[in-house]
Amino acid sequence: MIKYLGSKRLLLPHILDSIGALPDVRRVLDLFSGTARVGHALKQRGYVVHSNDHNAYAATLAACYVAADARRWRGRAERVLAELDRLPGEPGWFTATYCERSRFLQPMNGARVDAIRERIATLGLEPPLEAIALTSLVEAADRVDSTTGLQMAYLKQWAPRSHQPLTLRCPEIVPGAGSASCLDAIEAAGRVEADVAYLDPPYNQHSYLGNYHIWESLVRWDKPEVYGVAMKRIDVRERPSAFNRRGGIEAAFRAVLATVRARWLLVSFNDEGHMGLDLVRGILGAEGELTELAIEHPRYIGHRIGIYNPKGERVGEPGKARNREHLFRVDRAAVTALRSPAAGSTRRVAVAAP
């Protein structure tokens, strides 16, 4: 899967254990699915998962890893990907934008992206098969990019991996039922009923659309107007999320909770978020019996590089080297019996992760 800020790779065992300990759980809603890592792992465990994200690239990853049934699509996907992988490069909009006007990928690989993406656009593939093909292309480009994992900027010198040729691989799709959507979180929460709803909302000012705008353009293939050194899509400015605003996150969080239809809530939240953890505890504690797990882990790799100005000059040092992810589990069926006048019944467990 792609390099991703906010990836739940380290938290995933705790998420699986928390859901696995619950009685009579069959259906899970992953409301802010990102890379679909969580939904993919849950589907592997036999749950029926619906994954949602309002960004097209994330919804496409979910359509591949959660919605597509490997029993039906793997063989056809392997044949399509083999055909696409034989295409010679043909420079176009992607190469000009992300390899010449900027330096995210080497031009030879950008030309391959252009050729493969144009071919996908002409094939008229069924939606699950197209999602698999697009996911394969996004992951192939991610393996040869020249960034620290964010598309806010590119490295001053080409990363060693950028010299490798772009090669398609078939994603690790899973047998079984699942579904995916590309909706606002509140709309998706109102449409999908589940036993457990997993919520991993944005928690600070960093926009996932801004951080992964290249994947959004690659999936949409709308060849948008771009701006700035990073060649961001113009709609990065036009599609803000309330979760990225200190003044909007609390109301957005409460609105999602008021809409989501599930007995159990599982919420991950970082200790560096716009909402303080005491506020998060108070909001979730009012929903029912609250259990909390804290997992400490190193901060994202970009933290270790330092702080630079637009000229590439180091101008500052980052803060603390580790942060803490908090996993909250709420039993909403217990809201009447167990809620206290303050913030409900809370049990906390601290776990240190390497």
Largest sheet: 8 strands, mixed
CATH topology of the largest domain, by name, is Rossmann fold
- Strand fraction equals 15-25%
Tell me the CATH architecture of the largest domain.
Answer: 3-Layer(aba) Sandwich
**Unreliable runs, pLDDT <50, ≥5 residues?**
336-346, 348-354
Across the major sheet, the strand order is 3-2-1-4-7-11-8-12
**Quantity of strands, as a count:** 12
| Distance from first to last alpha carbon | 21 Å
- Total number of domains: 2
The rough form would be described as globular
Mean pLDDT: 88
CATH superfamily of the largest domain: Vaccinia Virus protein VP39
- The first-level CATH class of the largest domain is given as Alpha Beta
Number of helices: 13
Q: In angstroms, what is the radius of gyration?
A: 21 Å
H-E order: HEHEHHHHHEHEHHEEHEHEEEEHE
What structural class do you assign from the helix and strand content? alpha/beta
Could you explain how this protein is built, in words?
Residues 336-346 and 348-354 have low confidence and may be disordered. 37% of the residues lie in helices and 19% in strands. It contains 13 helices and 12 strands. The chain starts with 11 loop residues before the first helix and ends with a strand. The protein has helices at residues 12-20, 37-44, 56-67, 70-85, 93-100, 107-123, 127-143, 185-191, 208-211, 213-220, 249-259, 277-285, 335-338, and strands spanning 27-30, 48-52, 178-181, 193-199, 226-227, 232-233, 261-270, 289-298, 307-308, 314-316, 322-331, 346-352. The chain has 2 domains: 1-68 and 181-202 and 250-354, Vaccinia Virus protein VP39 (Rossmann fold, 3-Layer(aba) Sandwich), CATH 3.40.50; 70-172 and 214-240, no CATH class. It is globular. α3 (56-67) packs across α7, α4 (70-85) packs across α7 and α6 (107-123) runs antiparallel to α7 (127-143). The strands form 3 sheets. An 8-stranded mixed beta sheet has the order 3-2-1-4-7-11-8-12, sandwiched between helices. Strands 5-6 form a two-stranded antiparallel ribbon. With 354 residues, it is an alpha/beta fold.
